[in-house]
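help with these tokens:
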Amino acid sequence: MQYRNLGQTGLTISEVGFGCIPIIRLETNQAVKTLRHAYEQGITFYDTANAYRDSEDKIGRAFSGMRDKIVIATKTGRRDGAGALEHLENSLRMLQTEYIDLYQLHQVSREQDWEVATAAGGAFEVAKRAQQQGKIRHIGVTSHSLTMAVRLVKTGLFSTIQFPFNFIEDAAKGELRELAIKMNVGFIVMKPFAGGMIDNAAIAFKFLRQFPEMLPIPGFDSPEAVDEILSFYNEVNTVTDADLVLMDKYRNELGKQFCRRCEYCQPCPHGVSITPAMGYQVIARRMSPAVAVDFARNAMESVEKCIECGECVLRCPYELPIPEMLKKHHVMFKNHQESTK
């Protein structure tokens, strides 16, 4: 494992981090085992959020008594000061710590989010006050909007930017990456597998390792998953022509519009299983029609409950036309269903 500085923070971190969403589906003992295994293999950066259910609690349990050995990043999605402060205090309690190394304003992608967060008494003011009190060491921000992410970095207010980056969603390698390097802002890579759409870890990391100044934070749900990713770092990274062809195959399969499974659209007020239904097109291409129909039956039948109210569209950070895509996938599902009778 190699170590480097995280932008201008002065924090020394491992070249790959640990995205802690997947540990919410693990029993506490298994989560602690996975977290400790990652640390024993050299991972020192752990990214979580107040919204990730009991993720912070599991991290606190895993690293109790060894706080100075790791770097913890967490987040608040609240824009108002009172809400952000409540999240911060809860994070400190759950993580069993007196300070957060990196506290991030989460998913600042719209103008109105930015205006509220930076208004008097807003989330940013609370974070700055907490930083002065020693409860926060550095302040970062996350976004799914490239335009907004560039703007956020340009403000000079944040030590880090967290943004999606993978060989399918590679827009950040241009202006955003160059700006972060120029301003010495740490770049944290979310969604290294495009929200689960890339199911080949080796090819995903062949791409990512071409950008060593960017910190990928894959999610792990077992010690074996940790070992798989870290095994890639034991050899020199080489991207072959065959690798490039495979990347293109994934891009062509997914197209320009695909669900990253971030689940910001959930829950649907009418009971539609949006996230699994949004992935039916990919499932159908990787399985036979009969298997795909059986595998996704419950989710696809729930699409019939959609009344196209548009709430999911308003929540989607990628501005996907979700009802339209669901309808298209449902037609495909019905056709597959008919063909297998």
Q: What stands out?
A: The chain has two domains: 3-243, 274-339. The first strand starts at residue 3 and ends at 5. The mean pLDDT is 94. Residues 322-339 form the longest helix (18 residues).
